[in-house]
Specification:
- It is a single chain.
- With 266 residues, this protein is an alpha/beta fold.
- It contains six helices and twelve strands.
- Helices cover 25% and strands 21% of the residues.
- A seven-stranded mixed β-sheet has the order 9-10-8-7-6-5-12.
Length: 266
């Protein structure tokens, strides 16, 4: 079994910074065995922490989660993740969490953790649209339930961000909090790719960067209204845009606190 993420060392580079590698939408399925190990080995060699932005599996099946956990054994660095909509497809998300957790993956769902002075807050997020075109909490009960889900995910993100006391903070999502990084997708599906409700906690609790996936044909980067960089790291988008590079986004965070372990925040 893979070593617990709480016991793993964070392998730091010599320049006193932490290098993050982020990717989403792996969509690991039954035929993925043996196909992701080299990719995770590249991430292991390129970064100190690997961030996975949802849609870890294709149908949320236990078999898919077991395959992914085996492939992830090539990554000796800490792995922090959120789930995506595909991971909920078969109502098996708790089992997916358990399997990946036993493999050492720290899955965030409205909670936070720290690695070497960098704080990470994560949540899946939800849809609903952007700006003045966001779906309102009005009308039929089904519409209100839909909007309530977006509000719940937003409150979970805010609660996670509020726990962080680190100098450097990262937000990890599956759905996009801004419209800019979904541009390129068909306009008709924008409301199903995220919601600007998720941007509101980022204005109250600013972070160094936001990573999300989900928008396979979106745009690579945008900014919140308070100028926080938001990166769309959907694997299909990265592969299509940079066909000669490993499909993960790399950013560097200055190291401010020395600690060898991942510390969950309660």
């Amino acid at each position: 079994m893979k070593q617990s993420i709480h016991e793993k060392e964070c392998f730091l580079n010599s320049s006193e910074k932490i290098r993050l590698a982020a990717v989403g939408d792996l969509h690991c399925n039954k035929s993925s065995k043996g196909t992701l190990r080299a990719f995770f080995s590249q991430a292991d060699q390129s970064a100190d922490i690997l961030l996975l932005c949802g849609d870890l599996t294709d149908y949320g099946l236990s078999e898919e989660a077991y395959i992914l956990s085996e492939e992830l054994s090539a990554a000796r660095i800490p792995v922090i993740a959120v789930l995506g909509n595909h991971d909920f497809e078969t109502d098996n998300e708790n089992e997916v969490k358990r399997i990946l957790g036993e493999a050492g993956v720290r899955i965030l769902d409205g909670d936070a953790c720290e690695v070497n002075g960098v704080g990470f807050a994560g949540v899946k997020g939800f849809c609903g649209g952007y700006g003045q075109r966001s779906l309102g909490h009005w009308g039929e009960p089904a519409i209100k339930h839909f909007v309530d889900e977006a509000i719940r995910e937003t409150l979970k993100l805010e609660a996670a961000l509020a726990k962080l006391r680190t100098d450097h903070r990262i937000a990890l999502l599956h759905y996009s909090p801004i419209e800019a990084t979904v541009r390129g997708e068909p306009l008709e599906i924008y409301p199903f790719l995220g919601t600007s409700r998720l941007e509101e906690p980022l204005m109250r609790y600013p972070v160094d960067a936001v990573f999300h996936g989900h928008a396979h044909r979106g745009s690579l980067e945008g900014r919140t209204v308070n100028n926080i960089p938001v990166y769309n790291v959907a694997k299909p988008l990265l592969q299509r845009t940079f066909p000669d590079q490993p499909p993960f986004k790399i950013i560097d965070i200055p190291l401010s606190v020395s600690s060898d372990n991942v510390t969950p925040l309660r």
